[in-house]
Each structure stands twice: as structure tokens, then as C-alpha cells.
Write a structure and sequence with these properties.
By secondary structure, the chain is mainly alpha-helical. It is built from three helices and no strands. Helix 2 packs antiparallel against helix 3. The longest helix is centred in the last third of the chain and has 24 residues. The termini are far apart.
Length: 59
């Protein structure tokens, strides 16, 4: 069984990443798989930001 609390902490840390942080992760990734993973995280975080803007009529 996995350590759920561990992954909850990781999730909370990932949510705090800024676009420049994910860019750095992508640029410094050692493998294509890691690069793809970090790109997906960046895309997800961007989508969540866009969702907040749309929901708040902030555009």
C-alpha cells in the first residue's frame, strides 16, 4: 500500500510551482520521459489558472 500522505505533500508542493519553475524542470530534465512529465504538470497548472480566471470573470 502506498503512503498517501507522502503523495498529498508532493501534490501540495507541485501546486505551488510557478511557470518559470516548470520551465526549469523541463529544460533540466535528464530523460524525455521526465521532460514529458514536467510539461504535463506545467500544462495542468496553466489550465487550473485559466479556469480560475474564467470562473472569476477576470478576463
Amino acid at each position: 500500500m502506498c503512503d498517501v500522505k507522502k503523495y498529498e505533500r508532493i501534490y501540495e508542493e507541485i501546486k505551488e510551482l510557478q511557470p518559470e519553475d516548470t520551465l526549469q524542470l523541463v529544460l533540466e530534465a535528464e530523460t524525455e520521459e521526465q521532460r514529458n512529465f514536467y510539461e504535463m504538470i506545467g500544462d495542468y497548472l496553466l489550465q487550473m489558472s485559466q479556469k480560475k480566471v474564467i470562473e472569476g470573470n477576470l478576463f
